[in-house]
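Below is a filled-in request sheet from our internal design queue. Each sheet records the structural input a requester submitted and the sequence that came back. We keep these sheets so that new team members can see what a complete request looks like end to end.

REQUESTER: design group, bay 2
PRIORITY: normal
MODE: inverse folding
CHAIN LENGTH: 262
BACKBONE (tokenized):
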């Protein structure tokens, strides 16, 4: 489904790439977690996949292909059709991505009608149903609410609902639980696993949380300073890491009663 071969990403005139020689082959329905410290290049990788690198960023080397099509050849109209339908993204704080002076329903209806010819009432009903599928009770009430009237967990579920509206083949999740309390984090993680189960959606999840990656991912990639320093199945990374950096990450996970929760 997704192929990244020796991809390097550069920002502006900086001679040092922010990401260098990143490779990934991903199948549909697979969950891949990218783990690493801040500024290791995790978010840059998924933004490169979506073709929305900020600050003059560009793919300076390598090739990214989605379903056999090189994304470098996509024009503006092809990206518009692809984003939000076949490839969607959940941001670190979905609440910050919502317009605070517009009701959820107004924004959701506009999003649906941008990608599909549909009347306003039908789009409204579709949005409300999707919100309820994301375990938000009374979708009509959420649609009539402003973002500030919802909790952080509710706003994040709105973001997930919008991202999953068109049942994308690939979901990019940029630290989707980092701004939430631990109870809500667990609920969001379970919701994402359910999306994979119901829609066979492939997920690339960026996270600092090694325990979260250990619970969700089929494969884990560990990044440091723009490079992959370790890659393998969940079992390989947790039991037999090849990098000293990965071993240090594992050692930093707290233990309780001699048991480490990864």
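RETURNED SEQUENCE:
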């Amino acid at each position: 489904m997704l192929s990244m071969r020796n991809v390097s990403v550069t920002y502006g005139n900086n001679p040092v790439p922010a990401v260098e020689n990143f490779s990934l082959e991903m199948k549909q329905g697979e969950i891949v977690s990218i783990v690493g410290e801040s500024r290791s290049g995790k978010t840059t990788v998924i933004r490169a996949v979506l073709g929305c690198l900020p600050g003059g960023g560009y793919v300076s080397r390598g090739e990214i292909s989605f379903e056999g099509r090189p994304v470098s050849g996509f024009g503006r109209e092809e990206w518009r059709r692809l984003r939000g339908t076949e490839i969607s993204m959940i941001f670190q704080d979905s609440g910050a991505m919502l317009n605070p002076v517009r009701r959820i329903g107004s924004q959701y209806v506009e999003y649906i009608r941008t990608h599909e010819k549909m009347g306003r009432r039908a789009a409204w009903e579709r949005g409300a149903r999707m919100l309820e599928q994301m375990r938000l009770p009374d979708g009509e009430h959420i649609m009539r609410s402003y973002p500030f009237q919802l909790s952080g967990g509710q706003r994040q579920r709105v973001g997930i609902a919008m991202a999953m509206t068109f049942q994308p083949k690939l979901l990019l999740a940029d630290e989707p639980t980092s701004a939430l309390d631990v109870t809500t984090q667990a609920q969001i993680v379970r919701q994402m696993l359910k999306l994979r189960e119901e829609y066979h959606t492939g997920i690339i999840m960026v996270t600092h949380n090694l325990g979260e990656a250990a619970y969700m991912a089929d494969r884990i990639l560990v990044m440091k300073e723009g490079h992959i320093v370790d890659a393998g199945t969940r079992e390989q990374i947790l039991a037999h890491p090849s990098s000293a950096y990965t071993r240090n990450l594992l050692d930093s996970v707290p233990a309780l009663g001699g048991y480490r929760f990864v």
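SHEET NOTES:
- The chain has one domain: 2-95+168-260.
- The domain at 2-95+168-260 is CATH 3.40.50.300 (Rossmann fold).
FILED BY: M.R.
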